[in-house]
Amino acid sequence: MARAVRREPAEFGMDYVNLPEPSVTTAAGGRDEGSRSAPGTKLLRLVGVSFGLLCFLQVAVNVSLRLTLFKSDGQTSPTGPACSNETVKQEQLIERYIQRGWVRFHSSVYYISSNRNTWQQSRRFCLQQGADLVIINTKEEQDFTRQFNRLTWLGLHNKTKTGNWTWVDGTPLTKSYWGPGEPNGFEGKMENCVEIRFFELENSWNDIPCGDENYWICEKAVAP
C-alpha cells in the first residue's frame, strides 16, 4: 500500500525523510532515461576526438616542414648547400681565368706571358690580375714551369733587408732548384732576381739582374 509522506512547513521544526529527487525524464513504459546519454552524444564525442587528432597531426607536419626548409637553407650543416654555392663560385672564377688564356695546374691557374718585361713590371702585371709571380712549392710545379721553354721570371728575389732569397709572399726559400754553379752574381753584377733558364734540367734556376727583360709566369691560387 502506498505510503503518504507528509510535507510540513519548515517553521514547525520537525524532521522528515525527504523523498529522492524525481528523474529528469521518464519515458513511456516507466523506464528512466536520465542515466543514458542523449542521442548523438557518442557521435559528437567521436567527432571531437578525431578533430583533435587531426589538429595534432597538422602541427607535427608543419614543424617537420619548417625543420626541413631550415636545413635546406644551409644554416645547420657546413657541408650543405652553402658549401655547394662556394664550390660553384670557385669553378666560375677558374673558368673566367681560363677564358683569358690562363692554364690550370693542381690548385692554381697560371698565365705565361707572350712578351718580355723587367721583373718588377712583370710582377705589377700579375698583381693587377689578382695574382703574383709564380712560387714553386713542389717538384711537380717545378717540372710544370719548365715545359714552356722560355726564359721566365719566378717570384723569387733577394731584394730584402736580410738579403736572403725570399718568395713574393714573404716566405723564405727552403727548397731550391738552382742550376749548376748558381746563384753566382756573374761578373760581379747585382743579380737579385731569378729566372728559369735550363729547361732540360730539373735544377733550372739562374740569378740575373732584375732590370733585364724576360717572359714571366703569374700564379693565382684557386683551391685550398
TrEMBL record:
Q: Which InterPro entries match?
A: C-type_lectin-like, C-type_lectin-like/link_sf, C-type_lectin/snaclec_domain, C-type_lectin_CS, CD209-like_CTLD, CTDL_fold
Q: Name one GO molecular function term.
A: carbohydrate binding
| Top-rank lineage group of the source organism | Eukaryota
Q: Which Pfam families match?
A: Lectin_C
Q: Does the keyword Nucleotide-binding apply?
A: no
Instruction: Enumerate the transmembrane spans.
Output: 43-61
Every C-type lectin domain range:
105-219
Entry keyword annotation includes Disulfide bond: yes
Q: Which PROSITE patterns match?
A: C_TYPE_LECTIN_1 (PS00615), C_TYPE_LECTIN_2 (PS50041)
The record's keywords, sorted A to Z, are: Disulfide bond, Lectin, Membrane, Transmembrane, Transmembrane helix
* Protein name from the UniProt record: CD209 antigen-like protein E
